[in-house]
Amino acid sequence: MADTMIYGYDLVKEYPISRGMFKRKELLRAVGGVTLQVNKGEVLGLVGESGCGKTTLARLILGMIPPTAGSVEIAGQNINKLARLERAKTIQPIFQDPYSSLNPSKTIGSILTLPLRIQRDRESHSWEKRVRQTMDLVGLAQRMYNQYPNQLSGGQRQRVAIARALITRPAVVVCDEPTSALDVSVQSQILNLLKELREELNLTYVLISHNLAVVQHMATRVAVMYFGHVVEEEKTNILFEEPKHEYTKKLLGSILVPDPNKRIFNKKE
Fold first, then answer.
1. Which of 50, 137, 216, 217 is the most exposed place for a label (fewest CB within 10 A)?
2. β-pairing, 221-226 with 229-235?
3. Distance between CA 30 and CA 227 in Å, rounded?
């Protein structure tokens, strides 16, 4: 497991829910015994219907919530035993909505400098240089350093969110629906940027999306979730061409295509 960046073993997450004032609380199992492994440089796509547990699993991987059972290791270390600052150096999220994930009262320069300040980076004299280099890396014009989020387009804001995630050079990035809040015209630009950054910085991605076309374009492997369980996991090209689980077949069959006589996957008779 020398090249394993993410290893989740038998992960379970349960939430107590109330059924009424005089009734005992019941447990809702959002993730039920998921084991997964993501090697260095891979892109694991997590797909499934809304409510299937994708985002909960991502939060477990990020260490944002503790598992009810099981464990998560990032680069061989149990994430819940890492100090918060050490965890943040290793793994970072890119959130779905660039309109709400950025502080509207802060300039882009301040937003991108904050992770360095929180990490207590001692080379404060080079912070601005590092921020500007990262802005170049994600395709942001230097004039935006002193601008505010409300002066930027949705695509530019998502580039800021990507730059913020990468400013401390983490090894793993969790992308939670990174293009779903963007116009179709800029979605491909952001996806291509993420692909380029993965190759240039040797990143490992976990990509959560309900858009199967995005997953097919980005992922090297795909895990299909259904009611808190991974029901099928396979290399992307194999899964899309020859899905084995019945739910995966129905999921792929639900995609609308211009020609209704064509199928999203090739079913062998």
1. 50
2. antiparallel
3. 7
- Closest by CA to 230, choosing from 241, 245, 216, is 245
Q: Which domains does the chain have, with CATH numbers?
A: 4-99+171-262 (3.40.50.300)
Q: For 118-147, what is each residue's pLDDT tens digit?
A: 888 777 788 999 999 999 999 999 999 999
Judge whether residue 57 has pLDDT over 50. Answer: yes
The whole-angstrom separation of Cα 47 and Cα 196 is 22
Residue 246 has pLDDT above 90, yes or no: yes
Q: How many residues does the chain have?
A: 269
Would you tell me the crossing angle of helices 154-166 and 127-138 to the nearest 10 degrees? 130
DSSP string, 162-202: HHHHHTT--SEEEEESTTTTS-HHHHHHHHHHHHHHHHHHT
3-state class percentages of the chain: helix first, strand second, coil last, to nearest 5: 40, 25, 35
Q: Is the pLDDT of residue 19 over 80?
A: no
CA distances from 257 to 74, 211, 237 (A): 38, 13, 18
